[in-house]
Design goal:
Blueprint (H helix, E strand, L loop, with lengths): L2 H18 L1 H4 L5 E14 L4 E2 L15 E2 L5 E11 L2 E10 L6 H4 E9 L4 E8 L23 H4 L7 E12 L2 E17 L4 E17 L3 E12 L4 H11 L9 H7 L6 E13 L2 E12 L7 E12 L2 E12 L15 H11 L6 E11 L4 E12 L8 E2 L8 E13 L1
Antiparallel strand pairs: 1-3, 1-4, 1-19, 2-18, 4-5, 5-6, 6-7, 7-8, 8-9, 9-10, 10-11, 11-12, 12-13, 13-14, 14-15, 15-16, 16-17, 17-19
Helix pairs in contact: 5-6, 5-7
Length: 415
């Protein structure tokens, strides 16, 4: 049985395990069902750069299109309180995926044991605790915006981790300090214009520190992962370059090895905060991705958001950015005229993760009822040259700068 099959079997077993207890547990309300859903429409005005929610999406929205797949989803969750300190959770989210399967639709599937008021352990599939919105990233009703800023949330395709975590909580200084340690593995698809690559990560080690006060929250997070497989596009390009004779490329062997990602470590660090004051809510998040890999540049991303609530309505604005260095081919001892196609492919690969853009957003949320809300949001994105990682490209204009308008209209609910 393969690793993916084992994960699917574990998730399915936990799902079945929970439902098998329904007959005996429903009477005393130990088994609870809940759900959430979003119907989202997206319009964008670019002919060259297609909007997508994350780098894991193989579809995109171009000028003249109204798309309902990028932001529409249906989530179902089962919580089974087995005992006073032991429970099981299963969550499945139906949404647009490049490789649909029961395993991919399963976002949570874990057993949790609470030793006491301070300590708790979880085993199974959990959400990667790397974002401010980690625990409700898919529950659009839980946050004000029509969509979380792509500059921070769109670059990470991983929705879950299979492993174990331990959390320690302590009340102090009028609030709650919380420390979480987690480890495990994960896998997800990363899509380019013509290819879809499965990128697996293992040896995940992460820590999350937070302090939650009455009206403000501060979080610091850091995690390290190891890439456990070689993307096919990297392997093919490295193989092609390694076969170039020395008189055309003097160090082709060494350079080809620098394109390989398997075994490389990647670090993710973030700092985030929220502050409530009367009718105002301010939030900010900044993150940093860095790696020893030549293919993954240092990426700095962040956003700052402000919203004002007036009865059932909330008006908000967001400024978001992502920035990284672009690779320019200047290797010595290369016959660039003879190897033009290889150089072009190398530049594209080395700049795949080089996201460079900034976005200003204005939006309005209307809480129609206590469980139904709509959001209307306009994004104005200044996409910089060679910075279109977060978009899909359907032409040779992928490396040009462009200003893009994107409009979102969502209806979200919980039930």
């Amino acid at each position: 049985m393969s690793l993916a099959q084992c994960k699917s079997f574990f998730c399915f077993s936990l799902f079945t395990f929970a439902f098998q207890g329904a007959a005996s547990e429903t009477a005393n309300d130990n088994l609870q069902f809940s759900g959430f859903a979003t119907l989202g429409a997206v319009y964008s005005d670019s002919d060259h750069h297609g909007y997508r929610k994350s780098v894991g999406s193989a579809d995109a929205v171009y000028a003249g299109e109204i798309d309902f797949k990028q932001h529409s989803l249906l989530g179902l969750q089962v919580d089974w309180n087995i005992s006073s300190n032991f429970d099981a959770v299963y969550q499945g989210v139906l949404r647009e995926l490049p490789d649909p399967s029961f395993d991919r639709y399963t976002t949570l599937a874990f057993l949790r044991y609470e030793v006491n008021a301070n300590w708790s352990f979880r085993l199974g599939r959990t959400a990667p605790d790397i974002f401010l919105l980690t625990e409700y990233r898919d529950v659009d009703f839980s946050y004000i915006w029509a969509t979380a800023p792509n500059e921070v949330y769109g670059i990470i395709p991983y929705r879950s981790i299979d492993g174990i975590d331990v959390t320690y909580s302590q009340r102090a200084l009028g609030g709650v300090f919380q420390t979480k340690l987690f480890t495990g593995s994960s896998e997800a698809e990363v899509a380019a214009s013509s290819t879809i690559e499965e990128i697996k990560i293992e040896d995940i080690i992460g820590i999350s520190l937070s302090f939650d006060h009455f009206n403000w929250l501060v979080q610091v997070k850091h995690s390290q992962v190891s890439i456990s497989n070689e993307p096919q596009s990297n392997a093919l390009l490295a193989s092609s370059i390694s076969q170039v004779p020395d008189f055309l490329w003097s160090n082709s062997q060494d350079f080809s090895q620098s394109l390989l990602m398997k075994g490389q470590e990647v670090d993710y660090s973030s700092l985030s905060a929220q502050y409530f004051w009367k009718n105002w809510l301010a939030s900010a998040e900044i993150s940093r991705i860095q790696s020893a890999s030549e293919v993954i540049p240092k990426i700095t991303s962040g956003y700052a958001a402000l919203s004002y609530q007036l009865n059932a309505h909330q008006l908000y604005c967001i400024y978001a950015f992502t920035n990284s260095n672009n690779y320019i081919f200047d290797e010595s001892g290369v016959n660039e005229q003879a190897l033009e196609e290889l150089i072009h492919a190398t530049t594209g690969l080395m700049n795949f993760y080089a996201a460079n853009q900034e976005t200003i957003s204005l939006g309005w949320r209307w809480d129609i009822t206590s469980s139904v809300a709509s959001s209307l949001q306009w994004n104005y994105t200044r996409l910089k040259e060679n910075g279109s990682t977060l978009w899909l490209n359907n032409s040779d204009h992928h490396d040009v700068a462009e200003n893009i308008n994107t409009v979102f209209l969502t209806m979200s609910m919980v039930f």
